[in-house]
């Protein structure tokens, strides 16, 4: 649960704070206040979406626990990525049109995200690369369509590449964590600190990407464990004679995935088992690695240079600016208090000296 919350927070913060797709959507509104309102209104819907995804996974596991479609003799699917479509078609098969409606909804949401991504890539390419590199080039709508076509073809090619690497959901989580976590760390360093510089942040990003990629794609002898599953699916004859009941499935022999390490008996952990990190924690590791290395690397580089670059307050986060202003006001009040105290002390000393001289004069008289 904690890994899901941590990964979800990092990915969501990166998408809302440093994603070209989300920023481009928010800039379509009239002013900043409406953009903030739209962002805040989307938070409950986004949280509900993630909760429903987790609930959907639990329902699928509970539904197929006693009849695993992946390991059954007549397996209707070949990969775990096909569980959701198979669950929809097998559950709603008695309702004509509903399975197709659910599948089309999944595809429409995917196409919407891909179209926004392609549009953002086209905008960044034309504005940040083509125009600065070729100032005399007049980028038109036709050029942007060609760029979108190229990026669409690349997306299709990357889809086949990711599908060949293994579990599609796992690869999407790993790649998303590799990219979004350092991106979020860069924005946090820029908005919340005044010590970060370009060289230190680049070093932090490179080390974060290298470490996360090493832990994500290194050959691992320990596969990821699955929850216990049973493989006593009722046959067609048993269904007709009603000879298979829930109690027989409950006490059936246990059969789990062939690539899992789950076992009823405990086993000693080896060094390879200890050096194992779930792919759900890759984004958290990448974020903190980039933050720590980027910040301290920037401090070391500033010390070697002998000077630091002053950051205007307008580029800092409002929370950081308020904290800085409170600290500045506190320092100013302390300075004023010290100055007043010194002035009062000097006046008291002068008054004491005058009183002493007056007393001595009266005594002399």
From TrEMBL:
The keyword Cell membrane applies. It is found in: Cell membrane. InterPro entries: Na/Glc_symporter_sf, Na/solute_symporter, Sodium:Solute_Symporter_SSF. GO terms for molecular function: symporter activity. Keywords: Cell membrane, Ion transport, Membrane, Sodium, Sodium transport, Transmembrane, Transmembrane helix, Transport. The chain crosses the membrane at residues 37-64, 146-165, 171-193, 200-218, 279-304. Pfam families: SSF. Its main location: membrane. It is a multi-pass membrane protein. GO terms for biological process: sodium ion transport. GO terms for cellular component: plasma membrane. Belongs to the sodium:solute symporter (SSF) (TC 2.A.21) family. This is Putative sodium-dependent multivitamin transporter. It comes from Trichonephila clavata (Joro spider). The gene is CG32669.
